[in-house]
Amino acid sequence: xxxxxVLVVLFILPIVAYLFFASGINNFGKxxxxxxxxxxxxxxxxxxxxxxxxTILGFLGSDLENKKGIAFNLNQKIYKRFYxxxxxxxVMVVPKGSEFKVEELKSELGNLADVxxxxxxxxxxxxxxxxxxxxxxxxxxxxxxxxxxVFIIDKDKNLRGRTNDIDEGTKYGFKATxxxxxxxxxxxxxxxxxxxxRLALKKNNAERKNQ
Length: 211
Prior knowledge:
By secondary structure, this protein is an alpha+beta fold.
């Protein structure tokens, strides 16, 4: 009996604890809503919509040559890991007139992954600025209508983020120039929101079966 207790304490309990804490944030956490019901991207470009999609939203601006690092970081660290999930998409907002630069960028990204869910919305300067301000963050766009931060938008067009981030307090976006921010924070938060919808879908399916 004593040997059994010792074995449980030494081997089994640590494994159980590890599994609990490793999966706990994704199974039981919920990503806070920071801004409710933002405007739809249709107000900038009616080719795409945020409604009923889990969206990674970015603003690459007109200087795309100098934003390739951001795009490649996102492609490798976030997009490739999640793009096969249903209703998941990237939407990058750029000014009208950037079409040729976008096609070049998509071609380069296409050498690394299937870019089927890399979407680019084209808008006028005033449209882009107004749409960005509607996110109600503590961030700003530069003179090229760009920011290194990207945002998680849920299916109801709510901006999701963190209210008690250890470094920033309220965290509206994730800095795509920082591999650490993408790896250590954004990846976890995308997992959380995907888990939310998976659990909701399972619950709805179970309720239908019981009716």
